[in-house]
Design goal:
This protein is an alpha/beta fold and 864 residues long. 30% of the residues lie in helices and 20% in strands. The radius of gyration is 30 Å and the shape is globular.
Length: 864
């Protein structure tokens, strides 16, 4: 069939969702699709734009997957993506669109997904150098670049969702941050007065100054047109260097206006329930459209619903868009906030049930009607039950328990879970997935894991706020079907890791055999053995290569080195705080030269040596240990590094000695075995050169002491650390970190880093403060004693290994030929060094370029 021509104007999140929906639905009409995009890159996740400041790249945010074009082709369509080439005119009579490049495209169907633009109040100085908006990747790049050239104070105009996101970004950049909101409270559209007051209190505790009930009157500039001040309507004058406008959005409807399509009085292209404009060949979706219910929706879920409606119509199906759920749940500046349904109680006969605690920073309001049905709610500080409460409000079902019971925070309320939801209850509002679809995926399609359910139903692939509920439905369905849902560590232990830790600690168990005999079954496996080994090591029961302990270790721990792709190993000496003497560097260089190792300076401020054979490890480490180096534990689930800037000692901006503190922390916690690797950093000022807020625990210097941040990490799922305590003195800081690490080791799950552990911790950061600072559980003395024992009993694993002939016996490639190198470990030269040979390359068995100059006694390695 001859394809028809479809032009999509705009390629944001909603435009991309339209393309995906077009490829998902069977079509009687093949389409040749041309996408006219204004930005220099394909569609990306604007909802999580703030994560760009914590290391998420534009590629990570991209929604245009590598296989998407092929997916469109399999659906019978073809597609052209034109970047940096937006539409400038539409000729409805000729049915053509003209792009900025001059290209003229004929269309049989035209879809406008032009989105919105940020509203900038027309105050004097609004266009000064240093004024920005917060909408695109280019916007956040400009904000970062401006902050990097001496900006000290930033102001966000607007205290809504995006405004508080922007405030979090400025805070992360090290700027003193103000938020100016014209309404009497923050997030006025989403939360009520009580919720707004609680949100303000918690945000101000984080160091952000909030001005409500005030408007921007003027922005002052210096002689070169740069921002220097802001005057508010209440007379307040702020000294500022950077301004971000986030005072709302306006529909981008000019293209429609110019070609004569009707728009709303306050903007927005008028569409019907099928998302068609007054011209039936032209549709409008997303933030540029005025929906049939008279609203312009600024959230992604309604935009997705409109995209799917339009795609279904163009592929021969039928659906309608008459309105959408505008519920929101997010973390703003580390504060959990959620709003759903009739949050303000405007429905006739609506009554409120409220729980508020200034001490814990929790505000929860449920709005119900006379029949006991949930209409809406506001949650601040504790959003644990949002995933279930929101669907109940949308479905109009009678509450399964009294609202007085359900309004209580997590841990205090009544039972409320997935079983209370009807099958037609929408669980994922981004993709309009009902509970019944998830149930069917489990029962009929055989899905048994969360990734399988996500792939089958798309639930949880949008904003992600429903993932916990999706997992709950999956678990309950598996249990109802008779499938055993294992909650223990593995088939050999019914206990989880935290329970096993307590068993080992309380009973004084020092070997795996006893633990298995008394509390497990079978012989153990690759899951429980390393976990037991880690627990035993964290409680100081002996060297990890002694006796039975050695058989429990992971591959890397087995040889105290990281196994690489070609069977060689890496050697990573500890360099505390990144500080190393010239003599130490020379020693490392000589070792790398003599053994022909590849050298790499890492992001953790140390030098890694790659390409050592297993039989060479003791020889290399003998020279390192004799030179004063010790194990960097790059191979273990333990503290890796404590990164630092040069701090007050050298830097003109530093306010504390960050290097000295980093070295102290690294030497204190070296070798501390944990459920997962631990990384840390210390910054000498708020400029944050050491990136402390992306670490499991990070410290930033202040003029009065140290700010402590907890629960950050990079990796596949980056997370910014939360501010735990401010202006701590040295001793309090050390004691608090001691307790944090030991409490984490004591209660975390297998392979669980501090970030997900903290997100999972009941009561969150407030509970953690109560435990560590107020001793609410009465365990601080135990935590202090455990850390003191670790510090006093620490021994370098490699130094101890070199002193024990029995431990050295394992460092051979072949037990019956200890002097024979492994012939499969081969290398090829590259950029003056070596790298592992690929399967299609003929590499060499590398030997040292010079005889190793071994200081100390000669090592004798015998076969077993």
């Amino acid at each position: 069939m001859t394809p028809q021509h479809l032009v999509l104007v705009g390629h944001g999140m909603v435009g991309q969702r339209f393309l995906e929906a077009l490829a998902e639905h069977a079509s009687t009409t093949p389409w040749h699709i041309t996408v006219l995009a204004e930005e220099p890159r394909p569609a990306y996740d604007r909802v999580h734009l703030t994560s760009w400041f914590s290391g998420t790249s534009s590629e990570d945010l991209s929604l245009w997957g590598s296989g998407f074009v092929e997916q469109v082709r399999r659906a019978g369509h073809s597609i052209d993506l034109c970047l940096r080439d937006p539409a400038v005119t539409v000729d409805r009579d000729a049915r053509t669109v003209t792009a900025r490049s001059g290209r003229v495209l004929r269309y049989d169907a035209l879809v406008l997904a032009t989105g919105s633009y940020p509203f900038v109040p027309p105050v004097p100085g609004h266009d000064a150098q240093g004024c920005h908006v917060y909408r695109t990747i280019e916007d956040v790049e400009a904000i970062r670049d401006h902050a990097a050239v001496g900006a000290r104070v930033g102001v966000v105009v607007g205290g809504g969702l995006l405004g508080l996101e922007a405030a979090g970004a400025l805070k992360a950049l090290g700027l003193r941050t103000h938020v100016v909101e014209f309404a009497p409270r923050l997030m006025a559209l989403q939360v009520d007065q009580g919720g707004g007051e609680m949100l303000r209190r918690k945000i101000e505790e984080l160091g952000v100054t909030v001005h409500t009930g005030a408007a921007t009157q003027a922005i002052g500039t210096d002689g070169e047109g740069r921002v220097r001040s802001m005057t508010l309507s209440d007379g307040t004058v702020l000294d500022v260097d950077l301004v971000v406008f986030s005072a709302g959005i306006r529909p981008r409807d000019q293209l429609a206006r110019d070609c004569g399509l009707p728009v709303g009085e306050r903007g927005g292209i008028v569409v019907d329930e099928q998302c068609r404009t007054a011209d039936p060949r032209i549709s409008a979706i997303g933030e540029c459209a005025l929906a049939a219910d008279g609203r312009v929706y600024g959230l992604v879920a309604p935009g997705y619903a409109m995209a799917e409606t339009s795609a279904r119509r163009l592929t021969g199906g039928r659906s309608g868009f008459t309105g959408a759920d505008t519920s929101t749940e997010l973390k703003l500046l580390g504060v959990d906030v959620a709003s759903f349904g009739d949050a303000h109680g405007t429905s006739e006969g609506a009554v409120d049930v409220v729980y508020a605690s200034s001490r814990t920073g929790v505000y929860r309001k449920l709005v119900i009607d006379a029949r006991g049905r949930l209409l809406g709610g506001v949650l601040v500080g504790d959003t644990e039950s949002y995933a279930v409460l929101r669907p109940l409000a949308v479905s109009g079902a009678v509450l399964p328990a009294s609202p007085e019971q359900l309004v209580l925070p997590a841990g205090l309320g009544g039972p409320l879970g997935p079983l209370t939801l009807a099958d037609d209850t929408v669980v994922c509002s981004c993709h309009n997935v009902a509970k019944g679809a998830i149930v069917a995926a489990v029962r009929e399609d055989g899905c048994t894991t969360l990734p399988q359910v996500k792939k089958c139903t798309k639930a949880g692939t949008g904003c992600g706020s429903c993932l916990k509920l999706v997992q709950g439905i999956l678990t309950e369905e598996l249990e109802a079907s008779g499938a055993e849902v294992a909650r223990g560590l593995c088939e050999h232990f019914a206990h989880n890791r935290a329970e096993l830790y307590e068993i080992v600690r309380v009973k004084g168990i020092s070997d795996f055999s006893r633990l298995l005999e008394e509390h497990g079954s079978g012989d153990g496996c690759e899951i429980c053995k390393p976990v037991a080994a880690s627990i035993l090591a964290s409680l100081g029961t002996g060297h990890i290569l002694d006796g039975e302990q050695a058989t429990l270790q992971d591959t890397n721990d087995h040889h105290l080195a990281n196994l690489q792709r070609n069977g060689s190993y890496s050697v990573v000496p500890r360099i505390p705080g990144g500080e190393v003497t010239p003599g130490g560097l020379i020693t490392i260089g000589e070792i790398a030269r003599d053994f022909g190792l590849y050298t790499k300076i890492t992001g953790g401020q140390r030098v890694d040596l790659f390409g050592a054979r297993v039989d060479q490890l003791p020889l290399i480490w003998r020279r390192l240990v004799d030179a004063g180096f010790e194990s960097g534990h790059a191979y273990g689930k333990a503290l890796r590094t404590v990164k630092s800037c040069v701090g007050q000692t050298w830097c003109r901006f530093g306010v504390q000695d960050s290097v000295a503190l980093a070295i102290e922390l690294e030497l204190r916690y070296r070798g501390l075995r944990a459920p997962h690797k631990i990384k840390s950093a210390v910054s000498g000022c708020a400029r944050e050169c050491a990136e402390a807020q992306s670490k499991d625990f990070g410290v930033i210097a202040t003029a009065e002491g140290w700010n402590l941040y907890l629960g950050g990490n990079g990796g596949m799922t980056p997370r910014h650390a939360d501010l735990f305590a401010k202006d701590l003195d040295h001793d309090t800081l050390i004691r608090t970190i001691d307790r944090f690490l030991m409490f984490y080791i004591r209660t975390a799950d297998r392979l669980e880093r501090t970030a997900p552990w903290l997100d999972r911790l009941e009561g969150g950061l407030d509970h953690l403060r109560a435990v560590l600072l107020d001793d609410s559980l009465g365990i601080c003395a135990d935590l202090d004693e455990l850390m003191a024992r670790h510090v006093s009993t620490y021994q370098d694993e490699w130094a101890a290994t070199l002193a024990d002939p029995e431990r050295l016996r394992r460092f051979v490639s072949f037990a019956n030929a200890p002097d024979t190198p492994d012939p499969t470990v081969r290398f090829v030269p590259e950029r003056g060094q070596i790298r592992p040979a690929r399967p299609d390359e003929d590499g060499d068995i590398r030997t040292p370029t010079a005889a190793p100059l071994i200081a100390g006694p000669t090592l004798e390695v015998r076969s077993r």
